[in-house]
Amino acid sequence: MMTELHSQGIKIEDIVAVLKRTPIHARIIQAIKSAHALGCDLKIVSDANVFFIETILDHHGLRECFSEINTNPSFIDEEGRLRIFPHHDFTKSPHGCHHPCPPNMCKGIVIERIQASLSMEKKKTIIYLGDGIGDFCPSLKLGDGDYVMPRKNFPVWDLICKIRGLMKAEVCEWSNGEEFEYMLLHLISRISMNKINSGNTAQLYSVDCKLQTVPGAARETISQAISLPY
């Protein structure tokens, strides 16, 4: 897609301008900042790309809130063109996932790696947020005591509803920015209280939040914007 855009005369500055106009609800921005302030370890697992995500995070002052970005690598070449590469090089070998994951990225594999890195620490609770079909696989990887926050009436919500009784993680849906903020902070508060009641205050805020940010829609936004006179 980027090759086609650049062939039409679209410059990296045009892409940046569109990314900065990508809407993120004000309550979602505040929820991310609040979760970070409470000590949550926020990580991004996204099928966008590094340039898109970092541009949007920087624009909204959210870059420092995230400790890790798992996405498709990208860079700007010597001709000023954005080059994007797959997170998983499916041209060499498929990732082998049987769930509806795109060939370039299985988020479930990413979550398994994160879970493995946490296994040597005290138990941490994972809150996974998402809306796309690629968020179904990682939702299935979550265990008892974890939470998944699917966006209601979006692809991942539809898939989860079909097997909700088989989900190990508790499902807490949301529809808009206000519900997103309320549900996320409510879950963090609940987890914190559970730790206090169990006497595990040393790990009071060791909540590991996997935030699927909005820039998955940025590519569509760019495609729409370049067809408009501006």
TrEMBL record:
Cofactor(s) listed: Mg(2+)
Keywords in alphabetical order: Hydrolase, Magnesium, Metal-binding
Source organism superkingdom: Eukaryota
Binding site for Mg(2+): D131
Keyword Hydrolase set for record: yes
Keyword hit for Membrane: no
One function term, GO molecular function aspect: metal ion binding
SUPFAM superfamilies: HAD-like
One Pfam short name: Put_Phosphatase
Name of the protein described by the UniProt record: Inorganic pyrophosphatase 2-like isoform X2
Species: Durio zibethinus
